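Continued from yesterday's entry.
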Amino acid sequence: MNPPEALTQVSSGFIHLRTMTLLSQAVEAKKFDTRLQERNLQRGLLKPEELNSQAAHLSDDSEFAEYVSLDAISQGDGKKRTPANGKSA
């Protein structure tokens, strides 16, 4: 059997290597996703050094933060917001 495209055999049939490559790229893209970090560390897919290095290269966007009063939210008034820098908008 000599298929025209490179294929890899799995128990459920054949999967194109291109599909496997795309899956591998998708997994790599999610490597640092905060929802997956703990699992990736436990499984050895991510090293603590890699995570620390990635975190060190993140920019500080705190100047764009906006604090919202929980009281304002519970009362339905979304206008009572204070920018993180303390200045009124």
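--- second protein ---
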Amino acid sequence: MSLYLRSTTAATAGIALAGAAAYGLYKTGALRPVAVGAIRGGMKVSDWVKTKYQSAGKELKGMIKEAKATPAPAEKVTE
């Protein structure tokens, strides 16, 4: 048996075992609070990212407005 086939078989068995364990937890109802907590955490992260994105957008617009308002200094042409 090649190394690739052994590692693939081991990974597949591990995934199947993890899936069976997750299904068992789901059926007992123990997984629901964990899932709700993960969703709640994801929503908090989403709100934080949205706030940071909006703040960065406002700052960038301000810098663009400032750049347009002040002309760039003329460069000296040397020959």
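The radius of gyration is 28 Å. The chain has one domain: 3-66. Will compare against the first tomorrow.
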